[in-house]
Amino acid sequence: MIKTARSHTLPPKPKSVIVELSATPEKSSEKGVKASQGESVGCLYQYLETKKLLDGKTVSYPRVIDERDPNNPFHWRWAFNWKEKINGAWKGKSIGSIPPGAVPMIRLIQQQGAIREDIIAFIKKAKTKKTSPKLDVCKNFDNTKIKPVLPDDAPIAVVLFAGGGGIEAGMVQAGIRPVIAVEFDPTKPDLSRAIAKIHHRNFSKYGCRIIQLTVQEVAQSGFIGFPRRPDYLHASPVCANFSQAHTAKAGKGGETTDDLTAAIAVAKAIRQLQPRVFTLENVPRYQNSQSFSIILSALEQEGYLVDYSVVNMADFGLPQARRRLVLVASRGFRVALPSGTIPCGWYEAIVYLIPTMTDSQLLPKQRQALEKFLAGNAPTPLLIERVGGRTESKYKPAHLPCNTILRSHFTDHKGCNRSRFADIWLPDGRVKSLSIQGAARLQGFPDWYEFPKETATAGSIIGYSVPPSFATQLFISAQSNLLGVTV
């Protein structure tokens, strides 16, 4: 059941009205050259779009945090103009709204001496390329190798407790640009720095800046340099003290000062940044904590409509049983949680990867689990865990989602790499060791996401992350409400 927090409804925020559109080049990136016949080859240039809002404020698009970088294509609008001789007179022509991701290639083909017609043809092709396709969960696993291209006016998002960027990967797949991500765990500084490097590698292309401070430290500074009224604000506060595996019970001695100050910092972010949509993800027991109450109170006081529920992400096509608390809040309009989809078994998700995995041998306890299964079932591929204790079965048949993936699967008690963490038994007797790539796929990561080589770091990113495939559905649903269209 979806729980809805009581809140008063503020009138919808007035839409921005464009009263002035400036397409004057701020800085020409290429010089127009005259061909021998007097024909203009063309000029690629960057400019800013100026909009005046109803409240009298003037803003420039694309939106940029801090200073605008003259060398970053995503910080500018782009156009191409040229002259053609028509009926004996030179006439100026132009083509605008060029995707910034196409700019480097346009510059290259210009340098190689391409004729104007070829440059224009390339630009038109770049403009018609579909950006940020929907992720069709389990049915689209072999179709996510290409990193999405986002338009320069894509909605923007701020992420708190970012980890390696699972939520950001889902945002990007949904056509949303993460611009700031905050991530640092003072109890694991080396791991935090390693994760931050991977985050930068994956999302710097989209102009995302990773801040290696705690959310509490950023809140104390007043969120300097953060965009006000971003389209989205997301938070996944550290959940160790609320997880089922933790011996302490939430709200009964397990909740620490750090948990409470983190929640206060999130509440401050909501009040100061005033996002159009706020989302939160955590373990189920977080909903019983004082920390969660602090965040709910801030949302209610600011007039947000709130929906939250504990969902099993396997019901949303994730090939993994993963129960999590998910909250969506919006102001002036309601954003509901997405509806479910067809469940997906773990084998379907990674079958094409199995031939690339290394051979393995089952441990005694794994063999016992296998024998127990075969005693009452026909042979079928089995995913059998090597490490960790569980109350549920250590094995999963092919048609079922796998067990919840945890960071502890990939590291020992000292935080060092585990060489193997799960095995796949096949009916022909072969045994394969589940790879990091396979584990990432079971966590809903797209193939374009780059993982580090170190198993402990990669496994931490996987175990900590919001499954990107679920996040994509969450934000596509939010976008449909935000834009007032049905997806």
UniProtKB/TrEMBL annotation:
UniProt-listed SUPFAM superfamilies: S-adenosyl-L-methionine-dependent methyltransferases
Keywords: Methyltransferase, Plasmid, Restriction system, S-adenosyl-L-methionine, Transferase
EC numbers on record: 2.1.1.37
Entry GO MF terms: DNA (cytosine-5-)-methyltransferase activity; DNA binding
PROSITE patterns on file: SAM_MT_C5
GO biological process, one term: negative regulation of gene expression via chromosomal CpG island methylation
Key word Methyltransferase present: yes
Any Pfam family hit: DNA_methylase
Classification via Gene3D superfamilies: DNA Methylase, subunit A, domain 2, Vaccinia Virus protein VP39
Active site feature: C239
Top EC class of this enzyme: transferase
Family per record: Belongs to the class I-like SAM-binding methyltransferase superfamily. C5-methyltransferase family.
Protein's recorded name: DNA (cytosine-5-)-methyltransferase
Organism: Nostoc flagelliforme CCNUN1
